[in-house]
Amino acid sequence: MGFFHQVLPGIGTKYELETESGDLISVIFMPNGRVQLYTQPARCPDCYAADLNPMESRRLGNVLTGAIMEAEEEGVEIAFSALADLRIVVHTYIIRDQLSGKSITDLDIRSRTGVTILAVSRDGKNTVNPRPDFRFMSGDAVVVIGESDQIRTFEQEFME
Amino acid sequence: MEGMEGIAIALAACVVVALICRRYAIPPIPFYIITGLLLGTAGLGIVGTSEISEWIAHMGLLFLLFTMGLHLHPGEVAKRRGSFLIAGTIDLVINFAAGFAVALIIGLPFYDAVVLAGAFYISSSAIALSSLIDNRKLGFRESDTVIWMMVFEDIMLVALLILFTAQDVSPFRIIGIIICVAAAAFACVWKFQSRLWQFFAREDELPILAVFLAVVLAVAVSELTGVPDSLFVIILGSAVSLAAADRAEVVVRPFREVFLVIFFVFFGISVSLSGVPSLVILTSVIVLALISKLFSGLVIGKAIHGRIYSGIDIWADTASRGEFSILLALLYGSSAVVPIVAVMVVVTSCVGSFTGKYSTHIRRWCGHIATGK
């Protein structure tokens, strides 16, 4: 078990994993950001391959770590098994018209729901840790962090 | 037409060729050469070479070799053990010897025979690597063998370049200068490794300027010392690979892509088929070029992977000769060698792109025949 890694000159870096059942999985990272993924079932001469762009490979990685709870939404749950199984959810939402022009303090987000607004993305510019007087505009993408109950409350309070 | 109009016509033709090749996922290199043959001396005679086209083609060559140097990371190469040397040596001995024998049989003088043997031996890394990526074959063990065989061939190319230069300059002088330059380059990169990495990570024009300067500097130093610039850029590339191989490759790519297309098409344009031997001789050279790589592939497959069929996969991706064969013919070959190499590159790389695409089918088909199904 364990990954075996080697440099392939002119191609990129290859990671190989042989699973307990004898299947072989290879991942090749290329300098242009693309990733090729190969699986070779045990006792089968054929290889099955997929070519992924950087976004696709990140998503696949999330699925494999079990991080994505709801595949259709842009959210990730991270479990810290060392910290009494602390589970934190990071979720993105799009601000709708009714919240436009209101600030984080106006909405009293932290005390009403417990979540923290981690970042806001507007017209391709990101604001990380926005100040309490930050005013939302319709169409802003916000990244929210909290426990799953708090995230649910946030959805009910502001997103419905 | 010479000068800029000629370059414009040739480049325009190449854009169309590239478009068609991308559409059908075939390697464009042989078709650039065919385009050159059609436009140039051997064909319609529309475009001729000029000083500018020669300069650009030469830069293409240098950027190609710089990229090759980037793949020669000394630490990674030193880590390779038995299988790398075994596969590389089998490939070298069988194909170089076969090429040399062929050259002597068709009556080339000794020096030209060595050039043809080198061109016969060295496969096209560009075609092999893109075939492995495009045809999704990187998962196979045989692909690792092919990739490292290309590295071994690169090292042998360096040896050949030194050998050919030793004709004009004393070998001790060349080797002395090369060791000094290499020691200086590697020491500098090693000393400023982290700073160089940061430098190449910059998004502005500086890394691009620095790479271009490095290559131009190599030409200047070469004029002073008499050692070919091709050797200097390989050393520089290899030194840079210690610090920022991936990033440097991204920076060099635009230069290489553009200049190398000019290199291929103007190689085709400059070829004159007047000195070409008879069609029978030419055909037998090409057939032998394919067979000797098949034979070495089978031996390597048996030696490294324990299965003779692995050799078919290895052959499928290494049958193409390309950029390095042309390089040897252009730099060192006489007018008797150049057209032979041109035709050999065009035919083997067309065949090679086909075998690369269908290697699994070919292997299965051979398996069926062997088992009598």
Automatic annotation (TrEMBL), chain A:
Domain of life: Archaea
Domain RCK C-terminal positions: 78-160
Species, as recorded: Methanogenium marinum
Protein's name according to its UniProt entry: Potassium transporter TrkA
Gene Ontology process terms (BP): potassium ion transport
InterPro entries registered for this protein in UniProt: AAE_transporter (IPR050144), KhtT (IPR026278), KhtT-like_N (IPR058776), RCK_C (IPR006037), RCK_C_sf (IPR036721)
Region forming the signal peptide: none
Listed GO MF terms: monoatomic cation transmembrane transporter activity
TrEMBL record, chain B:
Pfam family, one: Na_H_Exchanger
GO process terms (BP): proton transmembrane transport
Keywords: Membrane, Transmembrane, Transmembrane helix, Transport
TM annotation in the entry: 6-24, 31-49, 55-72, 84-107, 113-133, 145-166, 172-192, 204-221, 227-245, 257-275, 281-304, 324-347
Any single GO CC term annotated in Swiss-Prot or TrEMBL for this entry: membrane
Claim: Cell membrane is one of the keywords in the record: no
Keyword Transport on entry: yes
Single annotated GO MF: antiporter activity
Lipid bilayer topology: Multi-pass membrane protein
InterPro entries: Cation/H_exchanger_TM, Na+/solute_symporter_sf
Family according to the record: Belongs to the monovalent cation:proton antiporter 2 (CPA2) transporter (TC 2.A.37) family.
Protein's recorded name: Cation:proton antiporter
Species assigned in the record: Methanogenium marinum
